[in-house]
Amino acid sequence: MAESTTLVALFPDIDPAAEAVESLRSLGVADDQIEIISGIPLLEPALGRPKRRTMVPRLALGGAFLGSLLGLFLAYGIPILFPLRVGGQPIFPGPPGIILVFEMTMLGLMGSAFIGVFLESYLPAWRPLKYVPDVSNGKIALLFNCPETDQEKFIQAMQALGAENVEPAVARQL
Fold it and tell me: Tell me: the pLDDT tens digits for 67-94?
């Protein structure tokens, strides 16, 4: 199997970067081997990329379920374990119990969604990451893997589409 190298192409605008993604696909680069770094958040369709699937919604639903179980236990389980009879009051609180279950459900949902986003963002970064400082100045960087034997063909294709700079990517500790 041929050795592959990671190249970074720097584009001044979104349109040439989107054309470059299509060009890379036509040159045989798979979508999972293309990474886009931008200083502003860009939706996947803006660059012709497939929609990413994340685990955040599943984690949030799981947190909401666990939070509602905790709320049910606090509102209705504790009065079963430790009944406290106060003259004329029911053992199980009605409206306060509903409020407690709702609040614990939302707390579980928000907490697990926050943790999910934190984990999906690869924070903290323990390993060196590929980064281009010009991205902070409004440029769009396109990182992609290509065979070392065809490296010159990829460089010429990116420069023909308007890339300002095409060079091997360097990973460094941020």
Answer: 999 999 999 999 999 988 888 888 888 8
Nearest to 31 by CA among 51, 3, 11, 9: 51
The domain ranges of the chain are: 4-52+127-172, 56-120
Tokens of 37: 């770094």
Task: Tell me the CA distances in angstroms from 29 to 74, 76, 150, one per residue in order.
Answer: 54, 57, 12
How many beta carbons lie within 10 A of that of residue 110, not counting itself?
14
- The answer to whether domain 4-52+127-172 has CATH 3.30.70.120 is yes
Contacts of 103 (CB under 8 A, 6+ apart): 71
| 133-165: pLDDT as tens digits | 888 888 999 999 988 888 899 999 999 999 998
Both tokens of 5, joined, read: 């190298």
Residue carrying structure tokens 């009879």: 85
